[in-house]
UniProtKB/TrEMBL annotation:
Compartments where found: Nucleus
Reactions that this protein is recorded to catalyse: Couples ATP hydrolysis with the unwinding of duplex DNA by translocating in the 3'-5' direction; ATP + H2O = ADP + phosphate + H(+)
Span of domain Helicase C-terminal: 340-486
EC number: 5.6.2.4
Protein name: ATP-dependent DNA helicase
Organism: Bimuria novae-zelandiae CBS 107.79
Domain of life: Eukaryota
PROSITE patterns associated with the record: HELICASE_ATP_BIND_1, HELICASE_CTER
Gene3D superfamilies recorded: P-loop containing nucleotide triphosphate hydrolases, Winged helix-like DNA-binding domain superfamily/Winged helix DNA-binding domain
The organism's taxonomic lineage, starting at the top: Eukaryota, Fungi, Dikarya, Ascomycota, Pezizomycotina
Keywords of this entry: ATP-binding, Helicase, Hydrolase, Nucleotide-binding, Nucleus
Family according to the record: Belongs to the helicase family. RecQ subfamily.
GO annotation (BP), single: double-strand break repair via homologous recombination
NCBIfam families per the UniProt record, alphabetical: recQ_fam
Main location: nucleus
């Protein structure tokens, strides 16, 4: 591994923590936390600038359609209903059986009309109409359409239709039509969607970290008054008790819960997210009427998981083929690393047109973009580590161009709906068939011939393994974590009481990556039922002011307590909120409200830091050593399974590419297609074109070197964690290594040509002999 790659992996690990911090901050950003903790959290982060050139916005002609003739529309639907108006429900909510009475042909007419008049489109695609009809008739649906297949309309059309349905049936008044809640992890895309909907006169809003406090409060008011048809939020927000309470109070309730990227709910999926598991629980608790789960990639197993999580019967599953006859799926193997770039250059010269080249590492994307530029290609890098402005400019330029190449990590692509992408190149191996298929799906949306090239080399395995093995915590780490969670003072807590944890500190102290900590906490919550996430809070506030006199003139008790208890440094004044809380006898709520008030009046600029996750105790934590050990053992087993799944996913992709079979057919089979539409051989993949097997270069791992093992043991005193020692040898960073200064030692990454499992065996022997 080169020094650059090493640095890049460091960056990826560092940004993992950064990402985590940002997710925490996003959750806490909700000023309504005051209802829970009394924190009127003040935030002055730069608002994320959002992508502007998205598919909706690009299609200006679609916005011309007006929907002023609502009365006419209602008359039409009422005519169908003629004489069948049930009496008004007291609380405006219908029982499921009554809702299901809405008949299908009326739903079809309604949805087609909305499609035309609101969205300016002439007809439905794929199985959109069938899915929407089911939803309008009261059923839930799992919708598996390819990227760009038009999944959004499957919940947007019903979201608009509910109001008309209600009016037609006469079941609810306009304020009681409830809402469609859209849960999506793609915060940047939510705003685009909402802007597009607003331009069509559809009442939509987003609640995320980019909202100003005023906008946030206005949205809350709209929600309370039943003014909104759609609300978008991130899954993490459902951890916030205050937010969930406000959703439960929406007049008319949640008519439809749309879960975007629904494959994240499955532990078999390629991007499992623990917060997704909580969505199904939320759906039950908030008495959501029906659910629409949307994804572009779901194997039959993942689709089953989604269906079972939301109790959706098989007739609610709407899938379409992943086979794309206009895509040439090519693969090549490069035994010589140096050939990679020259072969790519040859390919790009032969296949001009807008192209995305995917790399694993950010640095790799930058270097390759430079390399291509030096060879006169119009190339730019794109990855999550770049400034938002730069990323937006690159995205806009790509949309407008007919020859640009974007060299990108997976950060590029979500929501990219450019019809004429001619090539997708996988310069490095993606993590799974699902990711690969999603990325390939971005090519040739205009139906014209496009090429997808897959580059195979063994070094990619090494990189992938670093991510996979780096995730799994050791037994020692799990034990430390459980002992910390079940500390003496927590064992004294009563059920219903809360406690706070800093994941940042816990990650450092237990040597567990913060992403994995989230998964473990989700296990403790959902599987064991010990705790329940209740939001997050800040522990430290600091402020600066140009007008200290104005503050000191504030005679309010909270103001005086803050002034007395704070520590003034050069620029910032630090407010140790918990200490002041104790010394003043005031509540946290009162103190934070005062800080917020100063800020809102422009008297100070505030920054809140030290985010902590808050959990409510649901039942007593394990008390004995045996109980803790048992949970550690079970968690370790779960982690082992996850690690194996991740390794298997990459292997499955390699097997698919290196098999003596048609790639297109193998891909479709993987996603459960039995369709006869694809013949034995597609005629447009490497296998079909050449009947030559693409082979992975034969570079087997080397056995652990006894002298190097001894050297690590000489230089590192730890004997409590063989996985830790194996990570040092393999070159996987971890919080404990940073503390122990391991990276500076020559032994770090000294055996990166070995198999990680072999290293683990060697060090296990040394530690437990
Ligand atoms: N029935 C239709 N007729 C014409 N255009 C449509 C239709 N349905 C969707 N579209 C358009 O297709 C594009 C992609 O739709 P959408 O963003 O909903 O796809 P998606 O399946 O959610 O994709 P992704 O997986 O990338 O999020 C949009 O520009 C949308 O307006």
């Amino acid at each position: 591994m080169t020094a650059t790659q090493r640095k890049e992996i460091d960056l990826a690990f560092a940004s993992d923590h950064e990402l985590h911090k940002r997710v925490n901050a996003a959750i806490t950003q909700n000023p309504d936390l005051s209802s829970l903790f009394g924190d009127v959290v003040t935030h002055f982060r730069k608002q994320d600038s959002q992508p502007t050139n998205t598919s909706f916005e690009a299609e200006d002609d679609e916005f011309g359609a007006s929907f002023d003739d609502e009365a006419d529309f209602l008359a039409a639907t009422e005519a169908v209903e003629n004489g069948k108006r049930p009496r008004d429900e007291d609380d405006g909510a219908l029982s499921l059986s009554k809702r299901a009475k809405t008949n299908a042909s009326r739903s079809v007419a309604l949805s087609n009309r909305i499609l035309k008049e609101r969205f300016g489109l002439n007809g439905f695609r794929l199985k959109q109409e069938a899915a929407i009809t089911r939803i309008l008739d009261g059923g839930s649906a799992v919708i598996v359409f390819p990227t760009g297949g038009g999944k959004s309309l499957c919940y947007q059309v019903p979201a608009v239709a509910f109001r008309y349905q209600d009016e037609a049936i006469g079941s609810r008044n306009g304020q009681m039509s409830g809402i469609t809640l859209v849960v999506s992890p793609l915060i940047a895309l939510m705003k685009d969607q909402v802007d597009g909907l607003l331009r069509r006169g559809i009442k939509a809003a987003v609640l995320n970290s980019s909202l100003s406090r005023d906008k946030y409060l206005a949205t809350q008011q709209d929600l309370r008054q039943g003014h909104l048809d759609l609300l978008y939020c991130a899954p993490e927000r459902l951890n916030n008790e205050g937010f969930v309470a406000s959703l439960k109070a929406i007049p008319g309730g949640i008519r439809l819960l749309a879960v975007d990227e629904a494959h994240c709910i499955s532990e078999w999926g390629h991007s499992f997210r623990p917060d997704y598991l909580k969505i199904a629980r939320f759906a039950k608790e908030a008495s959501v009427e029906r659910v629409a789960c949307l994804t572009a990639t779901a194997t039959p197993k993942v689709a089953r998981d989604i269906c079972s999580a939301f109790s959706i019967p098989t007739e609610g599953l709407f899938t379409t083929t992943v086979y794309r006859p206009n895509l040439r799926l090519l693969a090549q193997s490069n035994p010589k690393q140096a050939d990679n770039v020259s072969k790519l250059v040859g390919f790009l010269r032969q296949n001009p047109g807008p192209t995305i080249v995917y790399t694993t590492l950010q640095k790799g994307a930058e270097e390759l973009a430079e390399e291509l530029k030096s060879r006169n290609f119009s190339a730019k890098a794109f990855h999550a580590g770049m400034d938002t402005d730069v990323k937006m400019r690159t995205q806009d330029a790509f949309f407008a161009s007919d020859n640009m190449i974007v060299v990108a990590t997976i950060a590029f692509g979500m929501g990219i709906d450019k019809p004429n992408i001619r090539n997708i190149v996988h310069f490095d191996i993606p993590d799974s068939i699902e990711s690969c298929s999603q990325q390939v799906g971005r090519a040739g949306r205009d139906g014209l011939s496009s090429v997808c090239l897959f580059n195979l080399s063994t070094k990619d395995f090494y990189l992938r393994n670093i991510f996979t093995y780096g995730d799994r915590p050791s037994r020692r780490s799990l034990k430390l974590l459980m002992e910390d969670i079940c500390s003496k003072e927590r064992k004294r807590l009563k059920v219903g009481e809360t406690f706070a944890i800093s994941e940042y500190h816990q990650s450092r102290d237990t040597d567990i990556k913060s992403t994995m900590l989230s998964i473990i906490y989700a296990q403790l919550e959902l599987h064991y039922g010990f705790i329940r996430a209740a939001g997050s809070k800040y522990t430290e506030y600091k402020y600066k002011t140009d007008n200290p006199d104005a503050i000191s003139r504030d005679r309010d008790r909270a103001a005086q307590a803050i002034l007395r208890g704070s520590n003034k440094k050069k620029l910032w004044t630090y407010v140790p909120i918990e200490i002041i809380e104790k010394s003043s006898g005031l509540t946290r709520e009162e103190l934070v409200r005062k800080i917020d008030e100063w800020n809102e009046r422009g008297m100070i600029t505030v920054q809140a830091t030290g985010v902590q996750q808050v959990y409510r105790l649901e039942k007593f934590l394990p008390a004995t050593k045996q109980e803790i050990d048992l949970i550690v053992k079970q968690l370790d087993k779960t982690m082992e399974t996850q690690e194996k799944q991740n390794l298997d996913r990459t292997k499955a992709l390699i097997n698919l590419i290196t098999d003596k079979k048609c790639f297109s057919r193998a891909l479709a089979t993987y996603f459960g297609e039995t369709s006869d539409r694809i013949s034995e051989e597609c005629g447009h993949c490497t296998w079909c074109e050449t009947h030559q097997q693409v082979l992975l270069p034969n570079e087997p791992p080397q056995p652990p070197n006894t002298a190097l093992v001894k050297r690590i043991l000489d230089e590192v005193s730890a004997r409590d964690d063989p996985r830790y020692l194996a990570k040092i040898a393999f070159g996987i960073k971890s919080p404990r290594m940073a503390q122990e200064g391991i990276y500076r030692k020559a032994v770090f990454e000294s055996m990166n040509v070995c198999d990680f499992e072999d290293l683990l065996k060697s060090f296990t022997k040394e530690c437990f002999m």
